[in-house]
């Protein structure tokens, strides 16, 4: 255990470089939102494709597993869907926005459901309504949805980058 920690401390610069790259990618995403969204659409397809490969690998490796045919079918569907989404990035970008929009809609409804348990609170009602409206905006206003995905992903990259830089610098000192 200590060896792993010591080894990571010797390689503090890896965190620093990774952090700088995260920050630069986040800034690039904000500066070039169209190219960034196209890339995210492709990556969405790639992730589904890799999930399919992983599913099929699991089916081949674990012959004693029950429900192997189900996992085989899911793996094949993921492979096909991933390949289609990678080759048709426009479809992938639309699906990405729809998935995110639906997720926020369901979160908004879920918050409304908590009103029964916790009692009415103006803060919970406002949060539920805003989350639900946010989901509707992402679904029915493509520009808003696309920009939302890009901006929040860029912010996540920048924040992750700053934390990696901080960790690298702390490891160097420590």
From TrEMBL:
Keywords on record: Membrane, Transmembrane, Transmembrane helix
GO cellular component, one term: plasma membrane
Transmembrane segments: 12-31, 37-57, 69-89, 95-115, 122-143, 149-171
InterPro entries linked to this entry: Acid_resist_chaperone_HdeD, DUF308_memb
Pfam families the record matches: DUF308
PANTHER family documented for this protein: PROTEIN HDED
The protein's name: Uncharacterized membrane protein HdeD (DUF308 family)
